[in-house]
Amino acid sequence: MIQLTSETKALGLLGHPVSHSKSPQMLNAAFSYHRLPYVYLAFDIAPDQLKEAVAGIKLLRFQGFNVTIPHKISIMDYLDEIDSVADAIGAVNTVIERNGRLIGTNTDGKGYLRSLEVEMGISVDQESVVMIGAGGAARAVGHALVSHGVKQLTILNRTNEKAEYLATHLSQWLPSIQVGTLKDGKKILENATCIINTTSVGMHPRIHEMPIEADWIPSHCIVSDLIYAPVKTALLKAAKAKGARIQNGLGMLLFQAAIAYEQWTNQIAPIEIMRQTLQK
Ligand code: ATR
Q1: CATH at residue 48
Q2: Is residue 142 domain-shared with residue 58, that is, in the same domain?
């Protein structure tokens, strides 16, 4: 880390808990690489402390901060402005300080899309995507897909009403979104070129669970799972066995931080330096 001085600017993460987070390692390594006068710390803030924490951050003139579970929605009440991306997603993961004002944005969806482009070499305007899930993560990924011209989108979810609700919300960018429940998965997945799991199914400790059946995965497609613990979910193992190309959630974690870094510093993020800290 570069030397801390009276000119050093603070950044941080507000969450509850935060002890597992790799964001401090990732971002401090990037600041060091560019010799930028920033330091990034993690703060464990309970929900009933959030308002005071934001007031403190403002007073101390932080350059900005990240927000994680459980504050991504409630933080919106305490910011001066919410940009159009965070507004469309309905959640904030990054805050930028400008002229004493705190502006909320969301880099999750864009970060995910960049991970698909960089790690899998695909552009979504060529892809027929089936997105599994319709919760908060699906909202960020779905918004990024439709606002970047995805060729075709189908939302598959356990609960039909939630899939319908998300499709209706996203229809302002793409009118022709199809929906289905997990039971319809076999037919719907036949024509998919890219399958994205945004649900928590398969996450540690229930590592043997899968949101769809292995037989339904077409061998020619890409299967991407937002989960990174475990690094290879049962879904990804099954997809690989079928001959599909696979991606885990570490890419999204990396690129959402890279985009936040770029917004705070106006410098291109040193991706490989950041990736190394994630893999440690
Ligand atoms: P997040 O913010 O992480 O996306 P969420 O908003 O609670 O979390 O959404 C979780 C998603 O995982 C939902 O799509 C949920 O399906 P429902 O809408 O039917 O609840 C899906 N999900 C969670 N557990 C599941 C399970 N055991 N089987 C299938 N889908 C599941």
Answers
A1: 3.40.50.10860
A2: no
Annotated binding site for shikimate: 21-23, 68, 93, 108, 228, 256
The span from the CA of 64 to the CA of 96, in Å, is 4
- Each residue's pLDDT, cut to its tens digit, for the chain (280 residues) gives 678 999 999 999 999 999 999 999 999 999 999 999 999 999 999 999 999 999 999 999 999 999 999 999 999 999 999 999 999 999 999 999 999 999 999 999 999 999 999 999 999 999 999 999 999 999 999 999 999 999 999 999 999 999 999 999 999 999 999 999 999 999 999 999 999 999 999 999 999 999 999 999 999 999 999 999 999 999 999 999 999 999 999 999 999 999 999 999 999 999 999 999 998 8
Domain membership flag for residue 2: no
How far does the chain reach from its first CA to its final CA, in angstroms?
17
Cα(26)–Cα(30) distance, integer angstroms: 6
- Ligand 1 atom nearest residue 138's Cα: 4
Residue tagged active-site, from 51, 72, 187, 237? 72
Same domain, 88 and 152: no
Regarding whether 273 and 241 lie in a shared domain, the answer is: no
4 in a domain, yes or no? no
Burial (0-12, 13-18, 19+ Cβ within 10 Å), 193? middle
- Asked if 115 and 42 sit in the same domain, the reply is no
How much distance in Å is there from the Cα of 84 to the middle of ligand 1?
25
Closest CA to 253 of 22, 87, 25: 22
Number of domains into which the chain is organized: 2
Residues 161 and 218 in one domain: yes
Tokens representing 53? 């924490």
Note if the pTM is more than 0.90.
yes
